[in-house]
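Consider the tokenized backbone below.
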């Protein structure tokens, strides 16, 4: 989601959370993001309920791996994830962490989806770790393993985590995986950081501090960090938010050309 275009319209500077009441910050947020709140709530609930990509954990990993390479989210990531589902997950050919972990980044099937070895090395290495967690903890499903990991790790110690140590997984990808798995947290991508600084006056010395500041903003507004992030992504993208539901319905007929996006 970090690949959306930034709106060229500058909002006037706003007081910082420290100098604005909680009710005031909530009013500011609702006023500026009112148009996208229903769609943002939908994104939030998909994550919290474990229903991102209809609850398919391998697609969540592929989504995050593609996004980690800076690819346009709706023009490239979403169509490629949907294609992978139809060609390999739905027929049962590559439909689990174990199955993906057993492949090479040079596998022709993977390269046919996108010819990017870095993307597939990340996806394979992440799937391997999650498959080991699944076996070690005795979980029945891949999603159980993903959600267990997401709940039992911390962004403050992400570099020491077995997922965080994977080459190609930075803090943004680490947090994006946790968010998709249902943890109420945020990711320090450039879109979110720029909007939060511009409209709420929030500054942070580094990305770890920024996530902490997002926790404070969440408490001040009364909205989850997940919802705050979804609202920012959706408002900053030139996208028909009425298509939000269908974008992530694997068997819907929606095409990326219908999204009317203005992406970098």
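A designed sequence for it:
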């Amino acid at each position: 989601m970090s690949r959306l275009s930034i709106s060229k319209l500058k909002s006037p500077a706003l007081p910082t959370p420290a100098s604005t009441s909680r009710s005031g910050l909530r009013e500011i947020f609702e006023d500026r993001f009112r148009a996208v709140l229903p769609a943002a709530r939908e994104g939030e609930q998909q994550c919290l309920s474990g229903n991102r990509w209809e609850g398919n954990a391998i697609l969540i990993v592929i989504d995050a791996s593609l996004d980690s390479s800076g690819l346009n989210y709706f023009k490239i990531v979403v169509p490629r994830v949907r294609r992978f589902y139809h060609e390999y997950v739905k027929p049962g050919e590559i439909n689990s962490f174990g199955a993906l972990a057993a492949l090479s980044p040079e596998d022709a099937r993977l390269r046919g989806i996108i010819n990017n070895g870095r993307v597939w090395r990340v996806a394979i290495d992440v799937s391997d770790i999650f498959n080991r967690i699944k076996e070690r903890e005795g979980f029945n499903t891949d999603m159980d393993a993903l959600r267990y990991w997401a709940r039992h790790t911390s962004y403050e110690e992400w570099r020491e985590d077995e997922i965080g140590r994977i080459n190609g997984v930075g803090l943004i990808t680490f947090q994006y995986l946790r968010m998709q798995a249902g943890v109420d947290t945020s990711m320090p991508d450039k879109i979110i950081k720029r909007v939060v600084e511009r409209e709420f006056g929030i500054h942070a010395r580094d990305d770890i501090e920024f996530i902490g500041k997002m926790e404070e903003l969440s408490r001040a507004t009364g909205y989850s960090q997940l919802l705050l992030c979804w609202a920012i992504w959706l408002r900053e993208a030139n996208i028909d938010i009425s298509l939000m539901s269908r974008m992530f319905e694997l068997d819907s007929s929606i095409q990326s050309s219908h999204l009317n996006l203005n992406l970098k």
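Residues 14-49+184-264 form one domain.
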